[in-house]
Amino acid sequence: MNIKINGKILIAAPTGEIDHHAAERFRAQIDSAFEKSSCRHIILDMKDVTFMDSSGIGMIIGRYKKAESGGGKLTLSNMSEAVTKLFNISGLAKIISRAENTQEAIIKLGGNIND
Known about the structure:
The structure is a single chain. It contains 4 helices and 7 strands. With 115 residues, the chain is of the alpha/beta class. A 5-stranded mixed β-sheet has the order 1-2-4-6-7, with helices on both faces. It has a two-stranded parallel ribbon with strand order 3-5. Strand 1 and strand 2 form a beta hairpin. It is globular. The protein starts with a strand and ends in a 7-residue tail after the last helix.
């Protein structure tokens, strides 16, 4: 997982599969970085995610709630066709915003793409 900060935005890029084994590890890494920062928003860059099951959905919902509780937002970017399908079927598309790429997500959240 690659994590970086852009102003008030934490950008987390999980890699590989987000299954029941990996979801907890990703959750812990994101939460730790988010709590240590002054970030309000979270972007999950899904570019390198090869598979996601219901554990991944749970991890996303939890990060959505964490951002929302601090007055922030969660946005997903760079979603594959398979992840997009799961995102839509699960109903997450109704509550969580999506961007084609991470730069678009940063702009949507009021960040600076040059950071």
